[in-house]
Amino acid sequence: MASFDPIDFDPNAPPPRPETPPVRRGFVMVLLVLMLAAGVVYGIPYMAQQIGYRYEVGRAVAAAEALEKLDGDDLIGRSSALFRLASTRVQPAVVNVRTEQMTGPPMGDQGGGLGQLVRGAGSGVVIDSENGFVVTNHHVIQDADQIIVRLGRREFPARLVGSDVKTDIAVLQVEGRLAAEAPWGDSDLVDIGDWVLAIGSPYELDRSVTAGIVSATGRGGLMQFGDLYQDFIQTDAAINPGNSGGPLINLKGEVIGINTAILSDTGGYQGIGLAISSGLARKIVEQIIKEGRVIRGYLGVSIRDILPEEAKALGLEEPRGAQVMDVVPGGPADEAGLRPGDVVLEIDDQPVDDSNALRTRTITLPIEKSVPVTIMRGGGQERVDVTIRAMPVLLDLGLLVEQGLPGELPAELAGRLPEDGLYIVGVMPGSPAARSGLDPRRIPGLRISAVGPVPVSTVEQLHQIAAAQYDPRAGLQLQVEALDGTPLMLNLGGSDPDAEGP
């Protein structure tokens, strides 16, 4: 501490300086640590940002040089040309389909009001320019009173040649020769990752083209589509309302699918579009043009998928194929020797991945054709030949009929009914039979007495006369008796309720 002595005091001397306390080493260390921390916190991100920026700049420069080289080799132009040429080839054959439907008068209108005009729109593709045939979706033209096809600036009234609700395919025809048509491609050659283009009229924007890749092939078993026969190509090419019925094409400009649906929470594009494969669509279209209706191939079996835990016990390395659960007596499979428990692995030399694949492949096989079927039985593979028959009309319409009293009928009801009648025992959900108003809970005891005006007494008669009487537009009329004997008339199927049958 500085001292003050009045004897030694010099008034001219400067005042004494206070003594500075010694700087402690710990304080210096803390200061250095804080400075280092500040450098880490603020300096490293800055340096990283500068390094990252220079890296991105370097990549951009390298990319520009690579693009310049590719452009010099015209690879970019040639790649773009593939999309341009494919769409140019097909666009002139893509049409807008417009429909008009007059609905009934409002509920409660006793004066016979005019009703309401409902308009719809979709897309289509010309597949035969000489005869004016256009392919679209069944749901695009369903219940339409008038169909108009717009091709470029021209409009044509269209006639419905026929449609198939269970594959969602319809064929229209316009008068006169059209300028262009689109060729079919082979959907069996399509693979995941292939580039595809979707062309159509989303929101009535004619001939819009979107690009994407194939996300999956052979997509089926989707519950959203009920009893549709499903063989979809899944794509991320943008498909929106109005695209339905338009073509999905490959880069050769060939139609490999008919755009039909999207999976979406919003109703708009979310990256999952579905197109009916050309392998299925083309065969349905050809039958409609040739026969006016679809005649499906029939095996006569009920089937199910193989569960993963069952594969090994069945002699399979992986869960694939379709297991036979039941065989229709006297049907094609029964005559070929198929038995419950057999697992179908191939049909007509085509692999069967699951039950949906077997159903879809079977319906397109030619009637009366003998096809090889590979099965797994008792741990070993066998090969049998099956002669494909036409699917019974009633089964195709979703109606299950048996001769004789159903076993589940209560005794008090069974005693009041004929023992050898033709009884309705089942209705397939979503089928034409279900849409006719048949409630599965109310069918016990319903007995078929006639097809149209023709009485029937056996299952064979029923199927024969139903096949002869069925008209794709007018449907099939069945005379049915209720439990109390009340006669009822059922009309199953039919795309035009006002059409007259044969």
Automatic annotation (TrEMBL):
Pro residues bias: start-end ranges: 12-21
Positions of region (Disordered): 1-21
Gene Ontology BP annotations: proteolysis
InterPro entries named among the record's database cross-references: PDZ, PDZ_sf, Peptidase_S1_PA, Peptidase_S1C
UniProt-listed PROSITE patterns: PDZ
SUPFAM superfamilies: PDZ domain-like (SSF50156), Trypsin-like serine proteases (SSF50494)
Record GO terms (molecular function): serine-type endopeptidase activity
Keywords: Hydrolase, Membrane, Protease, Transmembrane, Transmembrane helix
EC number: 3.4.21.107
Descriptive protein name: Periplasmic serine endoprotease DegP
